[in-house]
Amino acid sequence: MKYHKPKTFEEAAQIAAGSNGVTRFLAGGTDVLVQLRSDVVTPDDLIDIKGIDGTKAITKRGDGGWDLGVAVSGAEMMEHAELKRDWPGLVEGMDLIGSTQVQGRATLVGNLCNGSPAADSVPGMIAAGCTVSITGASGTRNVPVEEIPVGPGRTALTKGDVISAVHIPPRGARGGDAYLRFIPRTEMDIAVVGCAVNLRLDGDEISEARVVLGAVAPTVVLVEDAAKAIIGTALDDGALDALGATATAACNPIDDKRGTIEFRRDVAAVLAKRAAKIAYSRAKGGQQ
Amino acid sequence: MSKHHVSATVNGDPVEYLCDPRETLLDCLRDHLGVMGVKEGCGTGDCGACSVTVDGRLVCSCLVLGVEAEGAEIGTVEGMGTEGNLHVLQEKFIEHAALQCGICTPGILVAAEALLKKNPDPSETELRYWLAGNLCRCTGYDKIIRAVMDAAADMREAS
Amino acid sequence: MPEIHLWSGLRHLAGGEEIVAVEGNTIGQMLDALVAKHPRLEPAIKAGVSVAVDGQIKPNNRASKVSEESEIFLLQKLRGG
Amino acid sequence: MALDSGKPKFKYIGTRPNRPDGLDKVTGRARYGADISAPGMLHGAILRSPHAHAKILKIDASKALALKGVKAVVTRADFADGLSGEDWNIQENCMAGEKALYDGHAVAAVAATSALIARDAIKLIDVDYEPLPHVTDVDAAMAEGAPVIRDGAADYSVPEGLHPNVVRYFESGRGDLDEGFAKADLVLKRHYTTEAAHQGYIEPHACLAQLGADGKGELWCCTQGHWYVRQMCAAALGLEVSQLKVTPSEIGGGFGGKTTVFIDPVALALSRKAGGKPVKLVMSRSEVLRATGPTASASMDIKMGMTKDGKITAASGTYRMQGGAFPGAPVDETTVLAFANYNIEHVHHVGYDVMSNRPKQAAYRAPGAPMAAFGTESIIDEMATQLGLDPLEIRLKNAVKEGVRATYGPKFPAVGLIETLEAAQSHDNYAVPLGPNQGRGVASGFWLNWGGDTSASVAISEDGTVAVTVGTPDIGGSRASMALMAAEAFGIPYENVRVHIGDTASLGINEPTHGSRATYASGLAVIQSAKECIQKLSKRAAEAWGIDPDAVIWEDGFARPSGPNAGEFEPMSIAEIAGNMSSSGGPISGHFEASPETYGGSFGTHVVDVEVDPETGRTTVLRYLVVQDAGKAIHPSYVEGQFQGGAAQGIGWALNEEYIYGEDGRLQNPIFLDYRVPVASDLPMIDTVIVEVPNPGHPYGVRGVGETGITPPLPAIANAIAAATGVRFTKLPLTPPRVLAGIKAAKNA
Predict the structure, then answer these.
(1) Pairing with C60, which of A17, A255, D111, D470 sits 20 to 30 Å away (CA)?
(2) Among A82, A88, A90, A154, which Cα is nearest to A121's?
(3) Fold that domain B4-79 belongs to in CATH
């Protein structure tokens, strides 16, 4: 295994493009090192991108949105009061990954590129409408997060592509987001079901919404029917029931060591309803 | 396979080592620098026995490559206190019988110290969640939690 | 003669008897006498048994004394954990 | 809180001094299995079978041997021939012979100049496997047509007509079941299962081994019992036992799992093959989970009869347990202990020890008892609910006490079950009001404890301080207890005693720290050795004074004339006598070598409150109480620690821990991420009450306390969940999917 520490994303992309074997980008390393230690993946070229300027930056844009460097850790996001105030659901989704120690290293982009349908930070990013910059051979392009995962452990990135920044939209007025996941213990598990809800209110009514489920299908899924079920409502019981039903219907889960199909369908509905209530309360200015 | 030369500090002392890029910081601390208070319980970031601080940030040293530590300041249990001048946490762990086999103790001490630096007055729940990545199989955590809470109270009083 | 109580799984190897009276001043002598009386018990005794003498379980002590009055039970071989 | 009642007052026993190894362990200085290196040391790695069951047709290590830095490759051919019985089982488990018997079974090993090279080298070993059908479930393994793990492994006890995977059979009981059930107002029959759980010690197995062609070797390893290690390694490698010296490291948890060997013989074989160079071998966590010994899994049928007022009239249990690809599932303990808490006239147990394609089970804290308790304490609880009786009252009504004939035959000596039940009843936790979706569970448990081969020595140093050497590795603070007992016996300060764990060359044979025996047996040995020293010290004083040794008494660290008739002499301190040791007859030490048998069993009762989320099936433990009989708590903090640790492990086993095998027979969760032991945020504080019903067989009344604590939590948690949800669960673990499915099924019914 060769270790590289490029100074620019272009250089990083070139190293990856020129590699004859398996490449991995290293930021937080909380997946890469586990795979290395357990002999699942030993890259031929390991490209540490933390030497590139700006990868540790959290920057508020002029439009009120945020740009995050790709090596910003979960702990750094949690410690950023303003970011957390704007996007509590997104930040909490990141914070739920692993232990305090893992939080010291783990990153949004790493979680995304690992390609797991159970990735805790990805539903929140998709619900928020985040995009990522991808630097490749033909320059840098901007892609919505939901287009990155294509299957368990697989992403739309091709050889020589490296994600170089995360962009979070402006929060704007009367918006709120939330992420909940179900795990058997209180900490340290992989999500059995995850659900992020991001919405905006007009009066008491929901005017915009995005509902995203994790760990219930081969990829994280943006559930448009679920959003429709609550748009135009004040999240009354009927809307919540419809939300739950659409969430269950959107599941295409598997039975595995972490949960059953039936359990995932049931709990998807439960979490969708609970997360929607929190997001709704936050949009109204609640502190939940 | 070429090795990398790394310069860093461990508990304030300058160190240098040569490492294979596949070696973790945990491997380097133990095998190249003889810092044996750092333990490997899982190698996958699930047990916290290898907890250290890197530039003040609590991490699992099994999830950091040795080569990544270039220029870093690393803190381990060996740097917390010395015989005759123990850290309050170390004293309280002994006093409260907060260890049985003791293999998880160095990691828990390092993690608890990192918490108390950030939050000198944690609630029991905050403490339990902070330490959720530090497995202890002997104690059921009860006496560990009591020891840390007691140490935090003493440290608040002293400051 | 001391009497040995057999656990029920052993009884079919001892002609259906639940209590067997045998000569012996020690556990070892008693077990040897038991096997002499009921040879089909030999593999069971060889595989190891625990002997309770007056309520105290003696896992592996052939030299331990027993008397006419002792209440003796054979138990499956018990191990520490 | 200790419930003390008019027993002798102690000066040191029952106090809570700092443990002697505390400083080492909070500074990172303590040396565990993987913490030692030697000059010229090689690193080992083990190649493991990816198949659950396969013939090993050929092993080609030529590519591995060609790799630079590789110094030796060993396979089964490098071990001794002609073993039988448990020696063969252990050897076969450490290194597969003709067949790989489970996923993770060792098939070859490498020693190389670095750990990375060793890991690379095992990937270069080519093994030709012929995969065979496999079975990992206990009921499936004894069913007709199940793949045969190994023919001819069954012992004398197995009746004809059973599957060859059934290797041992037990049947015991008394009375007449029909008569007993006929007297009952309520008879209930239930099927229960428990999954295999791993001890989950945080320190993976590790050793540093050196063995020359002359058959002389040294081994440093983390173990609960180094004499066992020595014997097993000597057998596996064909060595004379005394030629091998084993030194125990500090041990990072064992809980029974480190009473046997997995890697030590392999490391020795590698060293021998590498020309006697030292070899360090350290397991990874996944190796620990795949290839060391979890406990057995169990499938049980329990039937119980009860009168309206809660008297148990009869009980029967059939226990089928798989302990991996070898005999040894603890079904003997399970059947003995099944109903041992209760005074039952008509009782019957049947047990099957079954082999399957899983790793060889090892002891795990009260082996066999938690499964037994899950069946018995669950069915009693369900019957109490049906009869409208209080769960503690129903247990008090049937509880055993001194003089009652145990279900396994003999009469009980003084035991403390009733005392634990009464203490639980009067504890505040039992009166806390519960909210919606909350439930309270109660269960009792028992472990017989153990004595076993014990050798210790106590030596007086020149300054009158005392060096104690015991052979039982200190897992949970036993050096503190030994020092307290020695201090009490001598009447000298705790700080003046230093306790060492001796290597295999320094004492007679010792059984491991198992069976909750260390504080009882090694403690007894230390006290008796101290008494021998005191006799000698007193004799030296008598000689100095020119009086009869019988006229000297020992008090608070001083020899004194026994009374005015003995003469008028200034008391002589232990330091003074010791200072003159060389000029008064030479060294003074005391020894103990025996297998003490006066261990007393320990009963415990647990009370737990849980809340179950009715929409997700997740259980939260709200509060937990452990009440247990310690006989006499030598160091109460470490007694409480044992109670709390046992409870936490039991809670894990009840809720989330399990071995999950796939269709392919491979372990699906060989990582702490998915083998889910409780984390700090999963648990509340664990309240404890130490009950003290002294063990008449120990000078200070000690009963072992380590194991009983894991026995009640399985049923206590299940009973609490039943109270919270109204649904009875009979299959562990009680994972959220399982609980939610049960709640839904009950709703739909």
Answers:
(1) D470
(2) A90
(3) Ubiquitin-like (UB roll) (3.10.20)
Q: Are residues D620 and D561 in the same domain?
A: no
Same domain (yes/no): D540, D634: no
B40 touches D: beta carbon within 8 Å? yes
Instruction: Please name the residues in contact with B70: beta carbons below 8 A apart, sequence gap of 6 or more.
Output: B4, B6, B7, B8
Using the beta-carbon criterion (under 8 Å), do B82 and D648 form an inter-chain contact? no
Domains of chain A: 175-283 (3.30.390.50)
Closest to D282 in 3D by CA, of D118, D126, D143: D118
CA distance C21 to B43: 60
CATH of residue D493's domain is 3.30.365.10
Q: Which chain D residue is nearest to residue C80, measuring alpha carbons? A: D515
Residue with tokens 């699930």: B46
Facing D595 at nearest CB: one of C61, C74, C79: C61
Chains B & D: contacts with CB separation below 8 Å: 186
- Decide if D120 touches B, using CB distance below 8 A: no
Residue range B88-158, CATH number: 1.10.150.120
Residues D411 and D472 in one domain: no
Q: Residues D439, D537: one domain?
A: no
pLDDT in tens, D564-622: 888 899 999 999 999 999 999 999 999 999 999 899 999 999 999 999 999 999 999 99
Report how many Cβ contacts below 8 Å link chain A to chain D. Answer: 62
Q: Residue ranges per domain, chain B?
A: 4-79, 88-158
Give the architecture-level CATH label for domain C3-76: Roll (3.10)
Give the list of residues 6+ apart from residue D478 with CB closer than 8 angstroms, or none: D470, D472, D513, D518, D519, D522, D638
CA distance B136 to B144: 9
Write out the two tokens for A92. 């909490």
Q: Which chains touch D (3 or more CB pairs under 8 A)?
A: A, B, C
Contact flag D410-C52 (C-beta cutoff 8 Å): yes
What would the DSSP string read from start to end of C28-48?
Answer: HHHHHHHHHH-GGGHHHHHH-
Nearest to D679 among B40, B77, B132 (CB): B132
Question: Containing domain of residue D458, as a range?
Answer: 10-17+451-594
CA atoms of D369 and D487, how far apart (whole Å): 35
CA-closest candidate to residue D488, choices D20, D8, D22: D8
Spell out a b/e string for D407-443, using b for 16 or more CB atoms within 10 Å of the CB, else e: bbbbebbbbbbbbbbbbbbebebbeeeeeeebbbbbb
Top residue of B103, B125, B149 to mutate, by most chain D CBs within 10 Å, is: B103
Summarize pLDDT for D662-703 with one digit per residue, the tens: 999 999 999 999 999 999 999 999 999 999 999 999 999 999
* pLDDT tens digits in sequence order for chain C, 81 residues long: 889 999 888 988 999 999 999 999 999 999 999 999 999 999 999 888 889 998 888 876 788 888 888 889 998 887 766
Residue D556 — φ and ψ, nearest 5°?
A: 50, 40
Complex ipTM more than 0.95, yes or no: yes
- Which residues between 92 and 121 in chain B have a beta carbon less than 8 angstroms from any beta carbon of chain D? 93-97, 99-106, 109
Q: How many domains does one find in chain D?
A: 2
Last residue within a domain, chosen from D543, D571, D594: D594
The residue from D594, D612, D634 where one domain ends is: D594
In a domain, D358, yes or no: no
Domain ranges of chain C: 3-76
* Cβ separation D737–A186 shorter than 8 A: no
Q: Is A13 helix (H, G, I), strand (E, B) or coil?
A: helix
Query: Do residue D363 and residue C5 have CB atoms under 8 angstroms apart?
Result: no
